[in-house]
Amino acid sequence: FKKKFHGNEHHFLDTVNYIYLSTASLQNAINDFKNVADKFQSESKLIDKTNPLSLRIVNDQLIQLERAFINPLGNSIERSDVKHVVYAPSRKDQYNAAGFPTIFDAIEDNDIINTQRQIAITTYFIRSAVSVLQQPTKLQTTSA
Q: Which parts form a coiled-coil structure per UniProt (predicted)?
């Protein structure tokens, strides 16, 4: 997943920078995601695979990671069934998935306001994914 995410980032940022939109917050979120994903990957290799609680924590984080990129409202009014904000088909090509589809669609529409909105929405979801991959600081337990 990280490779797909990383591969689309440069082409996307070149396009957005060409039309003079600020992508600093999005770029920072992407960099934070890369850093926390690398750390998560290296730490997950070191977990005790005989400890069910450790495995459960990592598994739960992976499940929540995928959910962090899902917009429950859909990517747009006309495409409410497409919900993944980072990797999904664009409006023009339903057969091939593209990185940051809502942002590219807004750029193709020449809609600067919507492009800024989609950058903000995508940044929010990437930040959510960052928070999912950070190590849990406190485990909630139930007492009998």
A: none
Residue 67: is its pLDDT beyond 90? Answer: yes
Name residue, tokens 């917050």.
Answer: 25
Question: Cα–Cα distance between 8 and 96 in angstroms, integer?
Answer: 13
List residues bridging with 89 in a β-sheet: 97
Q: Which domains, ranges and CATH numbers included, belong to the chain?
A: 2-133 (1.20.930.40)
Whether the model clears a pTM of 0.70, i.e. scores above it, the answer is yes
Token pair listed for 136? 């849990």
- Would you give the DSSP letter of residue 76? S
Residue 45, strand partner residues:
none
pLDDT tens digits for range 90-114: 777 777 777 888 888 888 888 889 9
Alpha-carbon gap, residue 117 to 63, rounded angstroms: 27
